[in-house]
C-alpha cells in the first residue's frame, strides 16, 4: 500500500518454523505423506535403478526434501493479517504453490500438475 512506515514494502513470507537441520531429521511418515500428495522432480531420479539401490543416496535425497517441506515453514495467514491490520498491505489473492525451485534444484508440483 506504499506505507512510508514500511518503506513502501511488505514481507514475502512467514519464514521457517523449523531450522533446516531439525527439519532434515523430521518424520519419515510425514515425508511419505507429502510425497504421496506431491510429485517431486529433482536432478536425482530415485526410481532410476542405478540410484534406487544406493541407500545412502536415497537417504540424503529424502533428508534434503524434508528441509524444504511445507511443515518446515510458518503459517503465512497471521502474517498477512498483521500486514492488513497495520495497513501495510492488502491481500488481493490467495496463491497455492504449483512449483517450488530452490538453490539445490528440488521442485514440487501436485500430481498431474
From TrEMBL:
Region (Disordered): 1-24
Names of the cofactor(s): Mn(2+)
SUPFAM superfamilies, per database record: Hypothetical protein PH1602 (SSF103365)
Protein's recorded name: 3'-phosphate/5'-hydroxy nucleic acid ligase
InterPro entries for the chain: RtcB, RtcB-like_sf
Keyword tags: GTP-binding, Ligase, Manganese, Metal-binding, Nucleotide-binding, RNA repair
EC number(s) per entry: 6.5.1.8
Enzyme type, top EC level: ligase
Catalyses which reaction(s): a 3'-end 3'-phospho-ribonucleotide-RNA + a 5'-end dephospho-ribonucleoside-RNA + GTP = a ribonucleotidyl-ribonucleotide-RNA + GMP + diphosphate
Amino acid at each position: 500500500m506504499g506505507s512510508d512506515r514500511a518503506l513502501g514494502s511488505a514481507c514475502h513470507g512467514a519464514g521457517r518454523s523449523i531450522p533446516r537441520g531439525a527439519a532434515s531429521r523430521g518424520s519419515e511418515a510425514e515425508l511419505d505423506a507429502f510425497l504421496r500428495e506431491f510429485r517431486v522432480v529433482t536432478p536425482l531420479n530415485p526410481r532410476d535403478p542405478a540410484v534406487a539401490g544406493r541407500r545412502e543416496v536415497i537417504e540424503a535425497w529424502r533428508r534434503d526434501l524434508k528441509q524444504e517441506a511445507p511443515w518446515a515453514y510458518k503459517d503465512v495467514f497471521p502474517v498477512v493479517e498483521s500486514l492488513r491490520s497495520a495497513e501495510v498491505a492488502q491481500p488481493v489473492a490467495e496463491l497455492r504453490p504449483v512449483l517450488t525451485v530452490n538453490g539445490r534444484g528440488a521442485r514440487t508440483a501436485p500430481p498431474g500438475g
